[in-house]
Amino acid sequence: MSVRPNQDVAAALGVLLADSYILALKTQNYHWNVVGSDFVQLHTLFGDQYEALSGAIDEVAERIRALGFPAPASFGEFAERSSLKSTAGAPAARDMITALRDDNLAAAKSAYAVIKAAEAVGDDSSADLATGRVTEHEKAAWMLSALLG
C-alpha cells in the first residue's frame, strides 16, 4: 500500500519528537549533576539513556521530513508540543530517577499515539518506528523503577 503524507501522523510524531528532546535534555542535565552514593551507577545509566535518545530524536525528525512536513526544531516548538516539562537545577538523585521514569512513560504514551495515527492511514513505517520507541521508553522506565525498589 502506498502511503500518502499525513498531517495527523506528522503532528503525532512532532509530539514524540518534542517529548524525546525534552527528555534527552533532562536526562543529560541529571547525568551532569547527579551526586550521592549511587553517582557512578546513575551517571552511567543517565549517560547511556541520553545518548540513545539522541539517536531516536534524529530518527523521529527524519521520519517527519520523509512524510513531507518540516520537523519542529526550536526550544519554543518543543515546549509548545511536549507533554513533558523541562526542569532546571539538580534535584536529589531519587527525585531524578522518579522524574525520568515518569517522563519515559509519558513519552511511551506519545509513541502509542503515533502508532494509532499511523495505523489509521496504513503508515507501517511510522507505526514501526513508534513501536520501537515504546519498547525503549518502557524499558528505560522499568530500569528506573527497579532503582526505586
TrEMBL record:
InterPro entries: DPS_DNA-bd, DPS_DNA-bd_CS, Ferritin-like, Ferritin-like_SF, Ferritin_DPS_dom
Ferritin/DPS domain segment(s): 11-149
Superkingdom classification of source: Bacteria
Stored PROSITE patterns: DPS_2 (PS00819)
UniProt-listed Gene3D superfamilies: 1.20.1260.10
MF (Gene Ontology): ferric iron binding; oxidoreductase activity, acting on metal ions
Family, similarity comment: Belongs to the Dps family.
The protein, known as: Ferritin/DPS domain-containing protein
Organism, scientific name: Elstera cyanobacteriorum
